[in-house]
Amino acid sequence: MKISEELRCLFSGKVEERDGSYVVEVPEQELRLGELQADETYRVAVLPTPATNEVNITDATTEPEQAPQTPPVEEGEQRTVEIEDIGDQGDGITRVERGFVVIVPDTKQTERVTIEITDVRENVAFAEVVERVSYYE
C-alpha cells in the first residue's frame, strides 16, 4: 500500500458509536506534536486490523502491520529550518516531518538557521545552530 507524502499523523484507534454517530478519537499527543488543529477538517484513512478473536497462530508469529514510527531525524544530520516558537525554557522550537519537535537553544522565533541534530529521543530531538541563514538566500 502506498502512503501519501501528505500524511500528517498515524495512530491506532477504535471507531466508537456515540449518540447516533461514529467517532474516532485522535490522541492528544497528535494535536500537541503534530500539524493537526482542533476544530479543523481532515481526510482520514481507516485501515482494518484483525480483531483479537480472529488472530490465529500464524498471525501471532508475524510482524505487526504497523511498526512503531521512528524519529524522522538522526544524530549528525543537518537541516535548514525556521524557528516556529519559543519553549518554556527559552529555547527555540521547530517541527519537521509528522510534526516531530526539534529543540534548538540560542535561537529566536522566526529565525532561519542551519542546525545539526545532537540528540534524538522517541518524541523530541535536540540540535545546535551551525549557521544563521538569511531569508534572502
From TrEMBL:
Pfam families: TRAM (PF01938). SUPFAM superfamilies: Nucleic acid-binding proteins. PROSITE patterns: TRAM. It comes from the Archaea. Residues 72-131 form the TRAM domain. InterPro entries: NA-bd_OB-fold, TRAM_dom. Residues 53-89 are annotated as: Disordered. This is TRAM domain-containing protein. It comes from Halorubrum californiense DSM 19288. The lineage of its organism: Archaea, Methanobacteriati, Methanobacteriota, Stenosarchaea group, Halobacteria.
